[in-house]
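Researcher: If only I could read backbone structure tokens as easily as an amino acid sequence. Walk me, if you will, through where the backbone shape changes along the chain. I have put the entry right below:
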Amino acid sequence: MQTSSICIHSHSILPLTLPPPSTPLPFTRPERFAPSLLPSAAMPQPGDNNSDRRLCALCNSSVGDEAVVAINRLWHPDHFCCNGCKRPIKQTYQTADNFAYCVVCFAAKFNPKCAGCNDTLVDTCLLALDRHWHPRCFTCSTCSRPLPNGEYYLVDGKPYDLDCHWGKRLEKREAIDRGQAVANAKIRGENPTAAF
């Protein structure tokens, strides 16, 4: 007699909070300062041989009239760039391994991909069947409708909604019954196809 694995599972939709290999800082905005507002540690001190400690972290020259403070360093506004796309970061960014990334590049590099559509997951995801999904991509194996609230019934390793789950169970039961009828007919020495 065949047995099938039938389980009910429920997963809620969660915010995507998977840390990259090194835990990043929360999304941050670079701060822009005029020279008179720069941190006092960056200003020239009396008796210093260096005339200006306000040096860009990229080019090591004076930041001049405007500076960006990010990742505990000063930058020319156009020199604070994403480590992925190499474009200047003007809005929010996130760091990983002491490198800055724009939101898009950070998600592409560190966020998981959806098991249904293979797109990068950004806002929320569903963790089901040991994989990550967009809530719209986690669908019933029979009718392909999204599974509401991440609730599903597992039959032979595939997710089903409640209605399709009962249809699949009935289909499996009928197949088992047919198999038993054929086996019984063979035991009795009858033609197995005549049993139907």
Remarks:
- Residues 31 and 69 are 5 Å apart (CA to CA).
- The first strand starts at residue 6 and ends at 10.
- The mean pLDDT is 74.
- Residues 68-110 form one domain.
